[in-house]
Write a structure and sequence with these properties.
The chain has 18 helices and two strands. By secondary structure, the protein is mainly alpha-helical. Strands 1-2 form a two-stranded antiparallel ribbon.
Length: about 500
């Protein structure tokens, strides 16, 4: 039984509890709802919440904890030699899970192969032949120990899942029955329900906070492990990025400065494109555009924010890059030969700037519209023209908010990945030529964690050091933006 099915059954129990709980409350008051402490619906909500919330909490915790426990139990059955050969328990358990999924696929196909496996020796060729007959490709490197572990994993997972849905459904029935038995006309159902809803809201807020804390802690722990293997001074002050993985020879050079330079350079070009365009668009929409034009133009402009970044990356790779080569490349329109290929800082910067236009324009438009009309009227009453009023009154009044919007757009640019991967190239270099290929911190995080990564090596752990550096950089920009907005906003309210 899947978690979705368990949830549906628990929800059905809660709905039934709502109906019967409400009916019991009305009956206890002899049909006179005025004798009840709370409205009849609150008694139904009370019964439903007791049948739903505890059961779903157990379901959520069980679903998270079960895979961890299974991994610990099954990994204890694996030979030490197999773990040592693979290099990490997680790699062996990944193979075990893959084989277990293959066994589940056999059962889903309606065959008897899984039952037959229990009667065969894991090391026999009959096992492979039987699995091959039903079309389950487990790979040619499946070892008998892995197959045995997969069978154990699958059996334990099935038993744990059965226990899970039994516990969840029984708990839901017990909660519903207990709340139903306590329902009478004197029960303060509204107070209980409102307290329960408040607890759920606090829990939802806590989940967001704890998720952020978990992300930060995971970055910190792995970053500390990285700096145990690689000198921090070489990382923060090194000017060469040249990781050397096993089999390539040489020592890795993991200096972050070329990546920071590429990140800031591309972000700068993006802001040069986005800030003037977005700000002028905001001024037009808020001060000059007629209402019918604004009603159509503003949503169309904001559609740019809804385009997936991978689409922008393809646009940079297939359209903008070749176009720039045709203009600035050898034999191009200008014949200057500045650009050798389509991937360059300028390519990624232009496309990223287009992506950031709605961020700047929408925020700036809202900020400009928040400027009191009395300031405009006073300026116009003193004889200033509309353009003078915008330049000398409206924009200075809205400037703190506009600066905050620009900084938020800069944070978005620094954290962008797909446009950089497809449009800027992968070369980690420090150059002032915008027509050369460079790369950013986010692009290298992707490349360092692509493929089978050994998380005991500095070449993989460096991704976490890059991530925490990027996190601190964007967090600083966000804090600065909020500080500017809050410090100067009240002057014009």
């Amino acid at each position: 039984m899947s978690d979705l099915t368990i949830f549906a059954l628990t929800l059905a129990i809660a709905v039934a509890g709502f109906v019967f709980g409400r009916r019991r409350a009305v009956v206890s008051a002899s049909g006179d709802v005025r004798a009840l402490h709370s409205l009849p619906a609150y008694y139904g909500y009370n019964t439903a919440l007791w049948g739903l919330v505890p059961a779903l909490l157990v379901l959520a915790v069980w679903s998270v904890v079960q895979p961890l426990i299974l991994q610990v139990v099954v990994s204890g059955q694996l030979p030490d030699a197999l773990i040592a050969e693979a290099g990490a328990v997680s790699l062996v358990m990944a193979d075990v899970a893959r084989v277990a999924d293959g066994l589940d696929a056999v059962q889903a196909a309606g065959t008897l192969a899984v039952d037959a496996l229990s009667n065969l020796d894991a090391g026999s060729t009959d096992v492979r032949a039987l699995l091959g007959d039903v079309g389950v490709a487990l790979g040619a490197d499946v070892r008998p120990e892995v197959l045995e572990a997969a069978q154990s994993y699958r059996g334990l997972a099935g038993s744990a899942t059965t226990a899970k849905w039994l516990v969840v459904l029984i708990l839901s029935l017990i909660g519903t029955g207990w709340a139903y038995s306590k329902t009478d006309l004197n029960l303060r159902a509204r107070n209980i329900v409102e307290s329960g809803v408040l607890a759920l809201l606090i829990g939802a807020a806590s989940i967001a906070i704890l998720t952020t804390l978990g992300i930060v802690l995971s970055l910190i722990f792995n970053t500390v492990e990285f700096f145990r293997l690689f000198p921090a001074t070489d990382f923060f002050f090194g000017t060469t990025w040249q990781p050397s993985f096993s089999g390539r020879g040489g020592a890795s050079q993991l200096g972050i400065i070329p990546l920071i330079w590429g990140t800031l350079y591309i972000s700068f070009i993006a802001l040069v494109v986005a800030v003037p365009t977005g700000l002028f668009a905001a001024i037009y929409l808020s001060e000059y555009a007629a209402k019918p034009v604004r009603t159509v133009a503003k949503p169309m402009l904001e559609l740019l924010a809804g385009i997936p970044t991978i689409v922008y990356g393809l646009f940079a790779l297939l359209t903008v890059g070749p176009l720039l080569v045709d203009i600035f490349g050898e034999g191009g329109l200008l014949g200057v030969g500045w650009m050798k290929g389509g991937t360059a800082v300028m390519t990624a910067g232009l496309v990223m700037g287009i992506m950031l236009i709605p961020f700047v324009s929408s925020l700036s438009d809202d900020i400009i519209n928040a400027v009191p009309q009395a300031l405009r009227d006073g300026s116009l009453g003193l004889g200033a023209t509309k353009s003078e009023t915008i330049r000398q009154v409206v924009l200075p009044a809205a400037l703190p908010g506009i600066v905050g919007a620009i900084l938020l757009a800069a944070s978005r640019a620094i954290g962008e990945t797909m446009i950089v991967v497809l449009g800027a190239g992968a070369a980690a270099r420090m150059s002032v030529n915008p027509f050369e290929a460079m790369t950013t911190v986010t692009a290298k995080i992707v490349s360092q964690l692509t493929g089978d990564s050994d998380f005991s090596s500095p070449e993989a752990l460096v991704a976490f050091a890059l991530g925490i550096t990027l996190f601190v950089l964007t967090l600083g920009l966000n804090v600065l933006a909020l500080y500017i907005v809050r410090k100067y906003r009240e002057q014009y309210e």
